[in-house]
User: What shape does this take?
Amino acid sequence: MTRRAVAIGRLEDHPNLGEVLGVLAQLAHVTDEDLARLSESWINDAFLGQARAKALTPDSPLVCEVLSAFEAVSALFEDDLRGEAPYVTVDPGTASLALKAVRDAIAASYARPVLSRAEHAALMRPWRAVYPQTTGGQPDLGPQSDQVHALLAALPRLATRCHDAAGLRLWESLLDQSYVAESERAEARDSAFSAAVVTRRRRVWALVRRSGAEGLGRSCPTCRTPRSYDTDRESERVLGLCLDAVCALLVADALPDGTTLLLTAPVRVLVPEQRRAL
Assistant: This one.
């Protein structure tokens, strides 16, 4: 049965919102074992190819968000696709096939209103073989998730610095902080990433860094200046400082308190209400 295109302007209005959020929330928690199972479950045939094409047509709901999610998948599993890092245990070919199943699940969940029941089920089958139940709507950001969310939510304020004096002061303060204890912070960042590997949060690590970069790269609402184009050295320094703090909070339960403090202290000016918590 062919379904008509459905006009959906926001994800919040999507009739299949629960499944969409469930798939997206699971992405950062896909394990190496899950990758192997997804790879084994993925197949391709003419019916699936047609269903996949229909799910990605311009008339499908929020197809631009789907393509953005595809990019996020590539970023989250970049190390697995390269297969060069010592902590990677999955063959790159296996990871590549698994991510085809992941992308099919993303496309199917978004395109559910325009797919037949058989098309949706076929695209979702490998995913459901590994994840039979829909999970919660938000990725698990660890025991200090509230602080992670607070810091991520504060980053877009810096995008207004060209028209907001307070935003500019925050930016300049963070830039000054980025020149303090650089070598110590580099070592602390390496320790934090090692903790992410040990606690199996390295993909969540990639997710929060991507989210933070997107928040800091938002356009100024006044002049619409796209901050995502800021590639100068100062912007890179501020971005790195903020992302290191977010990631330290992500794995704070697996780090010495001194390491966490070293990475989070510079951003207290950004979230002053979190001074005691950070």
Summary: The chain has two domains: 11-130, 145-274. The chain has a mean pLDDT of 89. Residues 11-130 form one domain.
